[in-house]
Specification:
The protein is mostly beta strands and 373 residues long. The protein is built from 4 helices and 19 strands. The strands form 2 sheets. It has a 10-stranded antiparallel sheet. Strands 1-12-13-14-15-16-18-19 form an 8-stranded antiparallel beta barrel. The longest helix is centred in the middle third of the chain and has 15 residues. The protein is elongated, with a radius of gyration of 31 Å.
Length: 373
């Protein structure tokens, strides 16, 4: 048989959201006198989070620079502190006898109030830089009676390796390290609903003679409704997630065609009706700007034809007297019970009060919905 193209423009409404109202999430600031003030902190990405903090208390929003507060945090996500690098915040990865911080361009360790910058290796002189950075770490952890040869030999200039080494050193010295991000969930799920219109098109492969009674295409526009679950891993990324959906819709198609011959005319009347349960699975990438965001999606979809019915009536009519010579009745074609396809989409998401809503456009394509002969 052939293909069915699914193109949809959907209105999407999230029941649970990843952001607080207006892009703010539960958090706190640490004032210069050491007191903690809880409220809402604006979630920021990139360089902005190292430059300033936007703190909301009630209806009042205040922007703080590193000189005005000791630090700030989004609860359960990341802690940023001042006083380590002049004029900007750094992310606190580990606090202990040996502390580890992350700046926009490198990592910084602090021991006995001394700061050491771990310069990242470069392509031009990677070997020299690596020796300097490893020698710095070897010197700082040398007072612990532990064989560090294996750790130092495999140590890479990244957050995971450095956090593991600094944590192990603090434990070795009897210090209980404070790792703020350890309370951040490894997995998070959000539930939402989908509703919209979907336009489907069936395109038969006309070159097969058993389908010569079908038109070149059939189109139907119908509403659809569904739910989705968005799975993310905040420890790795807050921009990438996997979305699993389930929605259902019903489509009806009708067609009529005539094939003229020298002495007769063949007429073909066809009708098809399907109830489809669609299960799209996709990777979703979010591009935030302000309190809104754009998102891109791509993945596969499994469609199940939970109810399918098709009919055809073919008549052969003589030209000279319009007499019906032959009538053929039966199914238009035999469809599969399920089929697999691919889809891509994009959308725009906006915060409205306590929920996050959005609109999206999608293109679906199933590979084959007909039974193979």
């Amino acid at each position: 048989m052939g293909k069915i193209w699914l193109i949809s423009i959907a209105l999407c409404c999230g029941i649970l959201q990843s952001y607080g109202q207006g892009g703010y999430e539960d958090g706190f600031i640490i004032k210069n006198d050491g007191d903690t003030l809880r409220g809402e902190v604006k979630f920021q990405t990139g360089a902005k989070r190292y430059q300033h903090c936007q703190f909301k208390l009630g209806d009042n929003v205040t922007t703080y620079s590193p000189s005005q507060i000791n630090g700030y945090a989004v609860t359960g996500y990341k802690l940023f502190i001042s006083g380590v690098e002049p004029g900007r915040f750094v992310e606190s990865l580990v606090e202990g006898k040996l502390s580890l911080y992350k700046s926009p361009n490198s990592y910084i360790v602090r021991k006995d109030e001394e700061l050491h910058t771990l310069i990242p290796p470069t392509e031009q002189n990677a070997s020299t830089q690596n020796r300097e950075y490893l020698h710095t770490m070897a010197y700082l952890i040398s007072d612990c009676a532990e064989d560090w040869e294996v750790e130092l030999k495999s140590l890479k200039h990244n957050e995971t390796d450095l956090t593991r080494l600094v944590t192990k050193y603090n434990t070795c010295t009897g210090t209980s390290p404070v790792i703020y991000k350890k309370d951040q969930p490894w997995a998070k799920a959000k539930v939402g609903i989908l509703a919209g219109m979907i336009q489907t098109e069936i395109e038969p492969f006309i070159r097969y003679i058993q389908y010569d009674h079908l038109e070149r295409s059939y189109t139907s526009s119908d509403p659809f409704f569904g739910i989705f679950v968005d799975f993310s891993a905040p420890q790795f990324s807050r921009r990438v997630s996997m979305q699993v959906e389930a929605h259902i819709f019903q489509s009806e198609y009708e067609g009529y065609k005539e094939d003229p011959f020298l002495s007769q005319i063949e007429t073909h009347a066809t009708s098809m009706e399907y109830t489809i349960l669609s299960l799209p699975i996709s990777l979703k990438y979010i591009v935030p700007f302000g309190t809104n965001s754009l998102f891109l999606q791509a993945g596969g979809n499994f469609d199940f034809f939970i109810n399918s019915d098709s009919e055809r009536t073919t008549q052969v009519i003589r030209r000279n007297n319009n007499e019906v010579v032959t009538t053929i009745e039966g199914p238009a074609f035999e469809s599969k019970s399920s089929s697999f396809g691919m889809w891509v989409g994009f959308g725009y998401s906006k915060q409205l009060g306590g929920i996050r809503t959005g609109i999206c456009a999608r293109y679906h394509r199933l590979y084959n919905m007909a039974e193979e002969d």
